[in-house]
Design a protein that fits this description.
The protein is α+β, with helices and mostly antiparallel strands and 121 residues long. It has helices at 2-10, 29-37, 66-71, 96-118; strands at 58-63, 78-83.
Length: 121
């Protein structure tokens, strides 16, 4: 969700990559649904392994959940590392509506942090 949100909010001002430590075979359908609810394009989104980006020169690396922070590799060419301690919405178990609610909350928190921590920098 963070990749799509930053692409949407930041436009062409940012080159955005998103990856996971254990990516699934497809983007979580709940993530797709809550992004589309806000009119955010999900075109081109696919799961990627974080190791693909380790050697890139990157201005900012943000880990978005505690488990990712613990297992995320070192980015030797990153100018800055930041951690946002968010719960992984994909780990939540409940009814369809409850899971959708958690994904919406996570989407909204990521958007808030992008606006305050990245776009205001």
């Amino acid at each position: 969700m963070a990749e799509a949100l930053l692409r949407h909010l930041g436009g062409d001002d940012f080159e955005v990559y998103s990856a996971g430590t254990k990516p699934q075979s497809v983007v979580n359908p709940f993530a797709i649904e809550v992004l589309k609810e806000c009119g955010i394009s999900t075109e081109g989104l696919y799961p990627k392994l974080v190791g693909e980006f380790v050697q890139l020169e990157i201005d900012l690396v943000v880990t978005v959940c505690d488990k990712a922070k613990q297992t995320c590799p070192h980015f030797p060419r990153a100018k800055q590392m930041e951690h946002w301690s968010l719960e992984d919405p994909a780990a939540f178990q409940g009814t369809y509506d409850e899971i959708l609610f958690v994904f919406r909350e996570t989407r909204d928190e990521i958007e808030r942090r992008i606006r305050s921590d990245i776009l205001q920098s």
